[in-house]
Amino acid sequence: MRVLSGMDPSPSSREPPFPHRGDETVWVGLSILTALAAASTDAWTKKFFGDGDAVTMAFYPLAYSLPLFALSLPFVPVPALDAVFWWCFALSIPINCFSFVLYMEAIRLSPLSLTVPFLTLTPAFLVITGYTILGERASPAAVLGIAVIVFGGYLLNAPAARHGLLHPLRAIATEKGSAMMIGVALIYSFSAVLGKKAILHSSPLFFGMFFFLLQNFFLVGWAWATGAVRRGGLFRASAVFKGILVGVLYYLHVVLHVWAISMTQAAYMIALKRLSAVFGVLYGGWLFREKHLAWRLTGAAMMVAGAAIIAWAG
After folding, report:
1. Which of 53, 138, 295, 298 gives 142 a disulfide partner, CB atoms 3.0 to 4.6 angstroms apart?
2. Main-chain dihedrals φ then ψ at residue 67, nearest 5 degrees
3. Are 120 and 304 in contact (CB under 8 A)?
């Protein structure tokens, strides 16, 4: 998610222009841990539940993290909430439920090393949609960042270049999971606007706890009520430990994210969080013996660098 990618806010006037010196080590560490938690949730969910369908994969981290969000919310200060918050919040729930299931389908169908890195396209899509919809001109640095991301995506499939220079690009189109993850990144580029607006009209901590409590509740409730998952499956002995692990990782991803982002500018934190793409490639090699790791690590690292360039171009 990279569960929170659709909810990543941009810098606001309430954020410090630069990180406080005393907090620098803390927010950097928290941001890297956020990336690791996000990648770990993806990898272990695929490992434990990848034999099922996308709804089943989505069900377990959401169901087992739901009690944690419910227990945490009473301890979170409730800010003043206006109509703008509620409209953005209400629109975000179905969009993110759909994109989360699509995300799970992407990593179910294809290797982690050929799917997760494409989430770095979200900031690139934000630049493109800003230009096409709002007429915002992209800075030279942002254009450079997009070019670096595209080249990194090319390198993910570089071994296919032996069949022709355009084959790595064709491989992206023919790999179903890669194409789906590009779609997820595009959806996130729109939902990020709603998430940013809702956070600006509340607070990062409240939004993180409240949003994921309701998102999890609605998606889990829908899956259970419609029979999309077996009702007895949640409490099978073989699934409980696995469910607890992915649920805790999902919860930690959210908590670490909102904690880190409250300590610095969002652009800085999100740029480091994109390291989840690199961690995802490493998990792919470790848990699933995915091939061509050298090329894919290089490509993922370049895509993260491109996302960072766009973030700092701001």
Report:
1. 138
2. -60, -35
3. yes
Please name the residue that has the structure tokens 């490992």.
47
Instruction: Determine the length of the chain.
Output: 314
- Of the candidates 289, 102, 267, which has an alpha carbon nearest to the alpha carbon of residue 177? 102
In contact, 276 and 18? CB cutoff 8 Å: no
Task: Look up residue 187 and give its two tokens.
Answer: 């959806």
Q: CA of 200: how far to CAs of 81, 127, 128, 215, 269, in Å?
A: 10, 20, 23, 19, 17
What's the rounded Cα separation, in Å, for the pair 118 and 97? 19
Q: Are the beta carbons of 77 and 206 closer than 8 angstroms?
A: yes
DSSP string over the chain: -TTTGGGPPPP-TTS-SS--GGGHHHHHHHHHHHHHHHHHHHHHHHHHHTTS-HHHHHHHHHHHHHHHHHHHGGGS------HHHHHHHHHHHHHHHHHHHHHHHHHHHS-GGGTGGGGGHHHHHHHHHHHHHH-PPPPHHHHHHHHHHHHHHHHHTGGGGGG-TTHHHHHHHH-HHHHHHHHHHHHHHHHHHHHHHHHHTS-HHHHHHHHHHHHHHHHHHHHHHTTSS-TTGGG-HHHHHHHHHHHHHHHHHHHHHHHHHTSS-HHHHHHHHTTHHHHHHHHHHHHH--S-HHHHHHHHHHHHHHHHHHHHH-
The answer to whether 6 and 195 have CB atoms below 8 angstroms apart is yes
Q: What share of the chain has pLDDT > 70, as a percent?
A: 90
Quick one: pLDDT at residue 267? 74
The dihedral of CA 200, 202, 206, 207: what is its sign? Answer: negative
- pLDDT value for 157: 94
Q: Which two tokens stand for residue 85?
A: 């918050």
Q: What is the mean pLDDT of each run of 10 residues along the chain (314 residues)?
A: 51 42 75 97 97 94 97 96 96 95 98 96 84 74 92 94 89 94 93 87 93 96 85 77 97 94 80 93 97 96 94 77
